[in-house]
Amino acid sequence: MGGRNSFKGGNRMKGKKLFLWVSVLVLVIGLLSIPLFGHKAKAQGKPIVIGAPLATAFLYGWDAERAIKLAVEEINAAGGVKVGNEKRPFKVEVIDTRDLEPGVPTSDALLVVEKLILEKNADFIVGGPVRSEAALAAMDLLSKYKKVSILTTGVLTPAYHKRVEAEYEKFKYCFRISGEVAWMVVGEFIPCLMEIKAKHNLNRLFIMIQDVAHARAGGDLVEKMSKERGWEVLGKEVYPTGTTDYSVGLLKAKKENAQVILIWMDMPETSILLKQWYDMKIPALPYGTIISAAEEPGFWKATEGKGEYAMASVVNAGNAPSKATPWTMKFFEAYTKKWKVEPEGYGTSSSYMAVYTLKDAIERAGTLDSAAVIAALEKTDLMGVYGRIKFNPKNHQVIPSVDPNEGAVGTIFQWQAGKRIVVFPPKIAMGEVKLPPWMKK
Amino acid sequence: MIIDNWSLPIDYSIMVILIYGIINSFSLALMAIGFTLVYGICRLPNFAHGALYVITGFLVWSLVHLLKLNYVVSIILALVIMGLVGAAIYRFVLIRVRGMATSEIIATYALGLAILEFLRWGGFKGMTYTLPVFIEGSVNIGGIPVDFQRIIVIGIGIVVVSFMWLFTHFNRTGLALRGMAQDEHAAMMLGIDSDWMAVIAMAMGSILAGLSAIALLPLGNIVVEAGYNVLILSIAVCIVGGLGSWVGAILAAFMIGFLQIITVTYIQSHFQMVVALLAIIVTLILRPSGLFGRQKELEERV
Fold first, then answer.
1. CB B130 to CB A271 under 8 A?
2. How many residue pairs from chains A and B have C-beta atoms closer than 8 A?
């Protein structure tokens, strides 16, 4: 009996000890959370939910997510969004659309958009879907739920804003604050190519593109326009998504004495293409228009410097260091400080600006009502990270320019000695295009 | 516009096809040999093969960059770990579904998916994960530039194929594995432990998947999506060669390897993957058990 009693006593002791420890834990958690409660008390009314459908495993998705979160954090820290007489914070809900992955059907991205609207109660959609095909399909959903959306990344097809223009009443909810392929080719890629032609006396072009809608359309347009402007187009190779060997295509370019290889691909494997280009010492300048791999700041280290001389467009200024506007480097430094990496490429500055543009429009509208916010967005005139942000009121496409005082400017840079040096447009250029030494005979 | 390749000097195109055809064929053979070994010995279709390939790449990367180990030590360590992973997959998962073909496929594919998604969830995304090449530089062969790493791939391919032949012809365990591949029941009657052999086969299959990753990944970058590509190519090679036939797999690797390079040289890069898939379809129509397969039931049914 005595043994059983002492056993019981031991249990009681253990129980007391446990109770003591739990009490201490509760006390500590309670004390620690006081500042949090204080913070909450400081936070304003009901949050405005931004739904962000993004392909988060890919550059154009994760950089957009980071940029949106940075903007939201800054805006909330500064007091939030003034809706009428009330100050309300932003809240971000991100769901992975996986639409940049090979073999993932477009319908998956649509389910994500619908989930953001119905389950996460998103007030606005910012970001994606990231693949053109998915974004075009999502327009009908946005129209059905009357949700204002600002597209910021991945989608370059002109079909997007053309659809808005063609059926304004139905698709008036859709805005795009980043570039589109028609302007990029006509206003940036071809003029930059012509600058290279004039400066270095080159005229033999080889085109390598990925088998996706925007690259096929872009490749065709570049081919047509460059031919009209005195370039000899020697060949065009189309690569399926996920290609890991480009040697034979590069040898074709070499055999044809190509002087510039124009690359238009958004898959990470393009870094292989540039490594092979270096290893084979192909005597042609790798002019990446859309080339996600070369955009990333980590590209230099990942290729052990083999990507030197590779050029890439990051679509909007601010995604590589430049002094386009006073806000450009401020954003650049804030992003670098928060995420321990420089703004990574296409989709970063535009996603950041989309949140600020939305804030500006909501404050001017004084309500979250879609019709009022659309009207306010159409009247946007904001000096942003990549120039003056204004939407074409007929098609809701951001107005582009090569002058940051006139409109949204793009950026083409070249990797030089481990740095991304902006070479186009001239108004924001930080350096000039250089040719690899093995091109000079 | 498609480049008019026929205007190229024929010797240049032939040299490209010859050199890059051999490299591509050895790459395919390296990718597929682990898959075909496991299927050949224990009739296990290891659909986690591509995932094992990718995880080896990330494992070596982590050992080099996070634990700051020497590259060679990291490679050896990664291969040992992969062997243990392969053995564990059989011992803890596949042993329970052994003999049920559909369940085996579902279990291995699910495992592969879980590995790949786990890697993605763990932050292994983007193009910044790369492994250094073994020897830097390139050489001109008949006017065609070839980098040393690709020549090393051929070397590793030859060593692996030779080792596999010697192992299965002159080593007791290797002979037992071959016995299992020929007739499992007869092998069991002779005292060969079927499960133990399957553990060894899975371990070796995983090591071979890892070895191919270590040889091929320095040519590009380590991305999760490569897992699916490697799996599809391995399956294509094995089906064309005849499921379970090692000789068939190597021959099929050469057939598909050369066909792909010929397609890229004379038609378009766009059709490179189509060739592999077309090879599966044509094989299944004309010779369902593959070049060297002995799927009697299948032949009779067709």
1. yes
2. 116
